[in-house]
TrEMBL record:
The keyword ATP-binding applies. ATP binds at residue 84. Coiled coil: none annotated. Residues 1-13, 30-40 have a biased composition (Basic and acidic residues). Keywords: ATP-binding, Kinase, Metal-binding, Nucleotide-binding, Serine/threonine-protein kinase, Transferase, Zinc. Residues 15-26 have a biased composition (Low complexity). This is Kinase suppressor of Ras 2 isoform X3. The lineage of its organism: Eukaryota, Metazoa, Ecdysozoa, Arthropoda, Hexapoda. One of its GO terms (molecular function) is ATP binding. It comes from Bombyx mandarina. The keyword Lyase does not apply. GO terms for biological process: response to stress. Residues 58-339 form the Protein kinase domain. It comes from the Eukaryota.
Length: 346
């Protein structure tokens, strides 16, 4: 019972860190570790030695990219891995950054799903904080859609969206809110969706220098159109930790991913942040008038983008809706088999 309590405390901590008033996270996440208690001595939930990777054991190769987070490198640790190195200031940290980091890692490590990136471990000795995950092959949806301008047919979009819903449904069932669902965090590996960076938002936001790359409001480019109205309305300079993330704000972000898949561009394309903030905050949505898609497909967008969080669906019901969408004839014709893997990668 003691253990259950400590897990509950983690959840409470999570809620207070994000400032989320949501009670979504309670309950189910607890069931995970119950059985392990009998066989292994109980660990302090913030120590997690079995997931520690000594920094020197990881070979670090070239930089793959730099996000808000820090730097992502290709590396080697029992095979090819991605290493996310956090930029931390060695000075004057009261330990809260390290605690947040450990807390978010403790959420991350509890995930096992086909459509989620594999967490392998973390380097926990400041100033060397890093997360080691499997290296995603393939490209992100962002690269496919916005850089390569690959076209996704409705059928392909549905297959991708179904897998996102499956991975996200799993996360939500475990009480984990992604907080940063976007096409840059979704890889497509031979037709298989792999979602990355779930639950790491607080630590990325606590890292030094985050606002350097954003605009005057500290808003990183390409972030705004994933934010639900209640988050937009809560935006304050330098207060990103207090944003009201919830399962429903993940659903809103999914709506934007769905729009990108179908339209090949971001909603509110070309509009300045001030204008997007004003519109979304008041409940104005991107118009779908010029969009070539069936009513059912547009309805998914509209319901995910509902102004009231309570009106948005959850991932299981979204998955159900996606599975019921009528397939285009092409998909049924044996002479024109639809291979998501081939068409998405080519
Ligand atoms: P963002 O998600 O905003 O692009 P990140 O810091 O998460 O920023 O990622 C930086 C870069 O590293 C991106 O190009 C991303 O595609 C790449 N990357 C992140 N995680 C992985 C991974 N597990 N495998 C391969 N590449 C990755
Ligand atoms: Mg990322």
């Amino acid at each position: 019972e003691e253990h259950t309590n400590s897990t509950k405390n983690e959840v409470t901590r999570e809620l207070s860190l994000t400032g989320s008033g949501s009670t979504d996270s309670g309950g189910r996440a607890d069931s995970l570790d119950k059985h392990s208690d009998a066989r292994w001595p109980r660990q302090n939930s913030l120590s997690m030695k079995e997931w520690d990777i000594p920094y020197d054991d990881v070979k670090i190769f070239e930089v793959i990219g730099a996000g808000r987070f820090g730097t992502v490198c290709r590396g080697s640790w029992h095979g090819a891995v991605a290493v996310k190195l956090l930029h931390v200031l060695p000075l004057s940290d009261d330990g809260s950054l390290l605690d947040t980091f450990k807390h978010e890692v403790s959420i991350f490590r509890k995930t096992r799903h086909e459509n989620l990136v594999l967490f392998m471990g973390a380097c926990m000795k400041p100033p060397r904080l890093a997360i080691v995950t499997s290296l995603c092959k393939g490209m992100t949806l962002y690269t496919h859609i916005h850089l390569r301008k690959d076209k996704f047919t409705a059928n392909k979009s549905v297959l991708v969206a179904q897998q996102i819903s499956q991975g996200m449904g799993y996360l939500h069932a475990r009480g984990i809110i992604h907080k940063d669902l976007k096409t840059k965090n979704i890889f497509l590996e031979s037709g298989k969706v792999v979602i990355t960076d779930f639950g790491l938002f607080s630590v990325t936001k606590l890292c030094f220098g985050n606002n350097a790359r954003g605009d005057s409001l500290g808003i990183p480019s390409g972030w705004l159109c994933y934010l639900a109205p209640e988050i937009i309305r809560a935006l304050r300079p330098h207060a990103s930790l207090l944003l009201p993330f919830s399962k429903a704000t993940d659903i809103y972000a999914f709506g934007t991913v769905w729009y990108e898949l179908l339209c090949g561009e971001f909603p509110f394309k070309g509009q300045p942040p001030e204008s997007i903030i004003w519109q979304v905050g008041k409940g104005v949505k991107q118009s779908l008038a010029n969009m070539q898609a069936s009513r059912d497909i547009k309805d998914i967008l509209m319901v995910c983008w509902s102004y009231r969080a309570a009106d948005r669906p959850d991932f299981p019901s979204l998955l159900n809706t996606l599975q019921k969408l009528p397939k285009k004839r092409l998909a049924r014709s044996p002479s024109h088999p639809v291979h998501l893997s081939r068409s998405a990668d080519s």
